[in-house]
Structures are given as C-alpha cells and as structure tokens.
Amino acid sequence: MTRVAAFDCGTNSLRLLIADVGPTGHLRDVVRRMEVVRLGEGVDRTGLIAADSMRRAFAVTEDYAKACARAGVSAMRFVATSASRDAGNRDEFIAGIRERLGVEPEVISGDEEALLSFHGATGPLVGRHEEPFLVVDLGGGSTEFVLGSTQDGPIAACSVNIGCVRITERHGFSDPPSPAELQAALADIDAAIAQAGALVPFARTRTLVGLAGTVTTVAAKALGLSVYDADAIDASVIGVAAVDRAAAELISMRKAERAALGFMHPGRVDVIGAGALIWRRIVAEVARAAALDVVVTSEHDILDGMALALARST
Question: Which of 53, 56, 91, 250 is most deeply packed, by most CB within 10 A?
Fold first, then answer.
C-alpha cells in the first residue's frame, strides 16, 4: 500500500486527495478536501493572477501541507490548470507553491488534464456502464472532453476555454441574469462546444460522465438533496430531462436563493449559474448526437488519476 497526495489547483478551487493505493490499483481515500480560492479571478480580463488570489492559494496550500505531514505521505504531486496556464505571472505562483510544499508544481496542458481526469473518473465505472465513455470535466476556466474506453484509452480529447468563473466574469451576469446576458454567454458556450465536437465525435458516446463542482451541484439539485451528499451523487444516473430542469432552475435563481440551498457550497453561489448554463448545453448536444437519455455523475476525477499515476511511479 502506497500513501500519496495529489493537489489540483484550478480556476475556482484548490483540492487535495490523500489516498492509499494498493498494488492492484485500488484507491482508498484518507483525506479529500476542497477550498474555493478563486485563483482565476480576473485572469480572463487582466492575464494575471491577482495578489489576493495568490495569497488565498498559498494559505490553503500551507494548511494542506500540514495535513500531508500528519498523514505521512510518501509522494506528492501538485498540478495547476486553466488559470495558471493563462497567467503571465504564473512563475511567481509556482515559486510560492514550491516554497510552501517542497515539490515542483506542474502547469499541465489541457490535454494532460483531460487524460488524468478520464482515468480517474472511469476506473470505478468499468463493467457498470457501456463504453466508450465521454468524460466531461467542467472547471472554472476550461472544460475538457475525453472520449475513450478503459481498455484502449482515449480516442479523442479536447480542452476549450469555457468554465463557470470565466463565463461569469466575461458576461457580468446580473442577479438573476438577463435574457440578453444569457444569449451572449450562450454564443461563447455554443462556439466552444462546436469546437470540441469537431475534434471529439460525440455520436460515438455510449455513456456521458460529468465531473467537477458545477456538475455535482447540478446533480444534487436534480436528485432533490437537502444537503451535499457525495455518496449519493457519485455514480448517480440521472435523466437528461432532469438535468436540464435542475440546471434551468439554478440559472434563473437569484444569488440569495442559491445560497439558501443546503447542498450549495458558498464559493459556488455566484458562478453556478454560468456553470449550469454550460453543463445544460453540453448535455443537450451530446444527448442529441449520441441518442442518450441519462447522464452519469462522478465524484472521481483528476485527483484520482494523479494519485494512481503517483503510486505507479513511486
């Protein structure tokens, strides 16, 4: 058994997984945490990580480093994704993480992010759903699409620059969003989905799998949960129509109404409308192309993929 730690720093959140990985590749969670640091706040507009965002990320990293020391991990890996890829001052961020964690952070490409997410998400689903899987990882700044099977690996992959934080900031949604704001956002979203569809053959999908906070929050709404329940959400199979209704309701709500939902993380209140808009359009397009009537939601993602890869290399 190997104990490893994986850090995923995205546009909206900084997450940690400490896990024990057995010789057969079985993964057992020891610690799984998420904090909203909003590293990508303003990056779409300025091209730089803001000083306050960097401070928030450094403070959470220090806290996570203590958790890793207490758990006695044998190896760590820190990856940064969309916001760090886009930022002109990413070297300053990387140096700060290196100083606090003692490992070299990696700013990975969208393609590598997609591959890690695919392997992390599909492992627990093997034998339970028809392949190939289309895994969609909807983040704060970018969204990754990977089509493939667990035996043969990815067939096609694409990363596009739409995410809940990026779209919220770019279109400055009112509370609630106006029809004009939604239409402008949809133009961006639909263009990105078309870009992905030109590279990833959606019609070959047999099972659509959605990952990350926006997707799991929409799933919580569709499932009628009163509080966030990862066990209930993980591997849940929800009808396309139910996902559509849940997303539509989240889009139309005021922030105060979203904040009152028992399953809503406070750090998602202001961006879940844009995230739900993106997920609603992706689900509709993939379901149309592949004649699907259900969506699978997974709590397993890039962190799991990183942990498995770390264990193999240790």
Answer: 250
> Domain of 53?
2-110
Q: What proportions of the chain, in percent to the nearest 5, are helix, strand and coil?
A: 50, 20, 30
CA distance 44 to 30: 35
Contact 250, 261 (CB under 8 A): no
Regarding whether 244 and 147 lie in a shared domain, the answer is yes
Residue 313 falls inside a structural domain: no
Specify the pTM.
Answer: 0.87
Which candidate, 57, 144, 48, places its Cα nearest to that of 97? 57
Both tokens of 272, joined, read 């879940």
Residue 304 lies in a domain: no
66/202 same-domain check:
no
For residue 193, the one-letter residue type is: I
Q: Are residues 58 and 192 in the same domain?
A: no
